[in-house]
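Minutes, project check-in
Item: structure for the 134-residue chain
Input as provided by the requester:
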Amino acid sequence: MVCQPTEEQPQWGDSIASRSYKPQNKALSHTNLMNNYFNPNSVYTEEDFRHRFRMRRHVFKRLLHDVQLVNPYFRQKQDRASCPGFSPHQNVTVALRMMAYGSPADSMNETYGMSKSTCLDTLEQFCDIIVQVY
């Protein structure tokens, strides 16, 4: 399902005149992530996963499960255009990548299609949950 941008975008206080809507294909980003790392015949092996995520796949899955139980932010919802939002896998992956590699938030847009502000929100939510749960 491809979502079309709405014709009328909400105005957020008119303080940022240069802000524009850039459509992202969240579903394609999710599919690529799942095919690369999480599906049974994924592109990357368990060793590749451990190298890139700095943890084993089963630890990631347990972490994902725990954060979803505690915080609804990490459950997939619909965005304002009634399209599926970012998946829990995408949210946790972005937060972990930013922490593990010190990646800037704006670099996540190319790979995961997530804006800088969403990445920062995700990282903040993730860190709060990790402190709360563990």
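Outcome recorded: DSSP finds six helices and no strands in the chain.
No further action items on this chain.
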